[in-house]
Amino acid sequence: MHDDESIVKDPKNSNEENSGVSRREFLKISTIAAAVPVVSTPDFVMAAGEQVPVRGPGKVPIELTVNGKVHKVSLEPRVTLLDALRDSLDITGAKRVCDRAECGSCTVLLDDKPVYACSVLAIEAQGRKITTVEALMEGGKLHPIQQAFVDNDASQCGFCTPGFVVACKALLDKHPDPSSDDILHELSGNLCRCGTYAGIRGAVAQAARKGA
Amino acid sequence: MPDYQWPDPEHRTLIGQRTLRVDSPDKVSGQARYTYDVKRPGMLFGKVLRSPYAHCKIVSIDTSAAEKMPGVKAIEIVQKPGSTIHWAGDEIVALAAVDEGVAEDAMRTIQVKYEKLPHLVSDAEPAPGQGESQGPLSMDDLGDMLDNQVPENQIISQIGQFGVSFQSTEQDYKDAKEEGVPDSILEAVRKATVHPEAAGKTTKSNYQKAATQTQGDIEKAFSDSEVTSEGLYGAPVITHCCLESHGSTSEWTDADHLFVHMSTQNVSGIAGQMAEPLKIPASNVRVHQDHVGGGFGSKFGPDRWGIATASLSKKAGGKPVHLMLERDSELKVAGARPSAYARVKVGAKKDGSLLAWQSYSWGTGGPGGGGMPPIPYCFAVPNQHKEHTAIRNNIGPARAWRAPNHPQAAILTMCALDDLAAKLNMDSYEFFLKNIELTRLANVYREELSIAAEMMGWKEKWHPRGQNVSGNIARGVGLSMHTWGGRGHASDCDLSIHPDGSVDIKMGTQDIGTGTRTCIAVVAADALGLKVDGIKLYIGDTQYPPSGGSGGSTTPGGVSSSTRRAVVDARDALFAKVAPALNAQPDDLEARDGSIRVKSQPNRSLSWKEACSKIGATPITCHGHNDQAAAKNKPDLTNSGVGGVQMAEVAIDMETGVVKVTKMVAVQDCGLIIDVRMAESSVMGAMIMGISYSLFEEKVMDPTTGRMLNADMEFYRLAGLNDIPELKVHMMTGKGYDERGVIGLGEPPAVSPGAAISNAVANALGVRVGVIPITPDKVLAALSQNSSQKAGA
Hints:
The complex is a heterodimer of chains A (212) and B (793). Chain A has two domains: 11-135, Ubiquitin-like (UB roll); 144-209, DNA polymerase, domain 1, CATH 1.10.150. Chain A has six helices and seven strands. Chain A has helices at 23-33, 81-88, 144-151, 161-174, 180-187, 197-209, and strands spanning 44-47, 50-53, 60-66, 69-75, 107-110, 113-116, 129-131. In chain A, helix 3 (144-151) packs across helix 6 and helix 4 packs across helix 5. The longest helix of chain A has 14 residues, at 161-174. Chain B has 793 residues and is of the alpha+beta class. Chain B has four domains: 9-18 and 488-630, Aldehyde Oxidoreductase, domain 4 (2-Layer Sandwich); 35-119 and 246-324, Aldehyde Oxidoreductase, domain 3 (Alpha-Beta Complex), CATH 3.90.1170.50; 134-238 and 337-391, Aldehyde Oxidoreductase, domain 4, CATH 3.30.365; 406-486 and 639-792, Aldehyde Oxidoreductase, domain 4 (2-Layer Sandwich), CATH 3.30.365.10. The longest helix of chain B is centred in the last third of the chain and has 24 residues, at 555-578. Chain B is globular and about 90 Å long. Classes of the chains: A alpha+beta (212), B alpha+beta (793). At the A-B interface, helix 2, helix 3, helix 4, helix 5 and helix 6 of A face helix 1 and helix 19 of B.
């Protein structure tokens, strides 16, 4: 396996300047995580020339910083960030649809970059800033992007909507004045079944105009 | 007599306007809770072990290892040893454990022995003579046809032609009626010849010939035809692919009371379907749902896995059991649209007058076979001969898919007619217009065709086939038309006006993303002179008055009618309480702009709050009912029968074969429109879904293993943002439309996209790609076949 191969399956960030978490970074994260007391046997294996701890298979303590709040949970290392958010923290805005990085309904921001939460392990997300759709509202008021979705009737059943809203936030953070190519590129990782794309396009345009 | 009639345009405040969808803020903020999001105290997670084989017998099941695993709380054998399995992915064992990981691990320890049986997953054209004649119909045959959405008139015709193999008692008819079998079909069974000797003959061919239908003099019609055209057209099996998969959370609140959260289109109809297999009264089952992530026709029943959550919960001491299908199961077993293919021959006079239709069609709805789509669609061609072969195979069961049977019928018909127009050297727009009197909605279609042509720029864009090529890019336009019923279903509504001015509505309906909440709120607020946020809605629970399942575009007519009746009664009751304070008669009052006022002297008024304070201590509560039978509604506020026209423009790269839809327009009527924004969104959604099934979607089966090959969202491709062009929607409103009453809209606009896009592709390429999805390989194959034919000619 090549040293720099991306561990996080993250099609949104597959361009060069932004290649998700590299193997080296992953190992660094793992090393930091090793400082946390491990409940299961602290076995070590050699990987890429370094000693790395074996986590699990039982539950291990995991600390996640979600929407500015630190949560301590005990989870098996195989649990995805999406399932940790939904099942352990009851933060259910990100939806589980395909569970394999194909549809974007679980999109969250990891250190402000969009990722498929179904394809990031919860242990990998430790020490990083996790932002979900729930954090976009401020003081009970919808974020301008959310308001733009409402104004343009960009949701029907609404199951893909949180993922699209978060993907739009990432799009406008990166391209405040997006070209149509930017929009297609950044939102091409999200799918809708009811057919709300026309509304979504209108919502992006409105949010961009208002400098969201 | 209260004035239930829909208000005139000048007396409407919100009806027919553009309101913001009332549940959007919850959806965009992640606050909307779906069944998938339900968390209950002590909740267990369920998983289902599924058959790896498309056709097999279960020999033995050993769950002993799973039983011993820590964290496993209940195991339920769904189909016992000895059962025959008819599709890969069918349910064998369900279990519940403390978390999903443990449930998955436990499932892997279950040992099942199967005896494999030969399977068929193909729906390829049957060889001549392969179809066996249908014998007398068994009760199962009828059940299959009903499950597979075979059109009522076809079922009746088959019952008449073949008879039945069973005797029915009065109790049977009563039971069937309660299960929702239409009266017309029960009547046909009563009149049918009974052939008891045919009962129990279950060994049937996979290929079953349906009734042959002939009308007029087909031979003479073809000999009178100056131009004929022949072609092969079709649509494969596709899936529903709801983003929220099917599933539920069941818990026993005591020994014989069940509380179920379920992802469903049919809140009020679920309790009865769960009660029967669990052997408890339906009144002991409470069903709840706040939001549902798509249904499209696939979520009307609790399904075997839903019943399993209740059985598992019982075994686990009543603890909640949460079971949502994984994506692959969702695509394999939770919904499929039947396929339909046909060899069609059509004939016309030189002036374009249609004379003859002949079709040999086939298709599959899985184990039930399925029926012939209603062809020729929309156009009652005077002379017809139709034969259909239903293929019973092992691809899994079919379910209603947005406008059951109509998109297939539109492909088979509109593409054949478009090819005939091309042979006549006629603009297809002129050809369809020429024959418009053969439709039942000629005036509607004529008006809609003209508007659609204007919006598309048809006159400028249409050209004879294959004559708009620039470089590698070929461009073309195509059109199709469609129809649907859409009468309102049975619906009950309780509406209360409270002394503090708050208003609430309780109704056991559901909003499947079609804007049902908004529709109810608009109707109520319009009558009370309030804004939509003045109405508090309680829906999605069996504790509220029942309302029909959301299928067949029946919800808008149903819920708007029951709401209108309730709100008019409640408003009149309020007028009676308020009249003395305004020194007026109740009949002189109106509710407008947040006040109750005297019609002739609007300055004699009370604010809404002041007016409601006259109610007294207990709220005004009124009940509204819409009956399924039009005659029982006086006046009838809903109606049936709409027409629509769609046009598509495509650009095709002839080197790669990639088809891009570059513009699409829809013109649609649906009677009185409650909210124009919701209506337009529904139509746009249907167009987008239509682009998706026209270009990308197909349930691909592996003939060797009998399994679905693309049960994920990478290879079962849905259209993305990039695939969607400029969409234009025009809703027919005003005189001639509004006074018909409310008619549903979910299905009709989903019918035409396949045919319109296919016709645009034919117009661009000069050659027909007869079977959707129109993928690059099919485009290139059609082009090369065409050029080799030309070279050979």
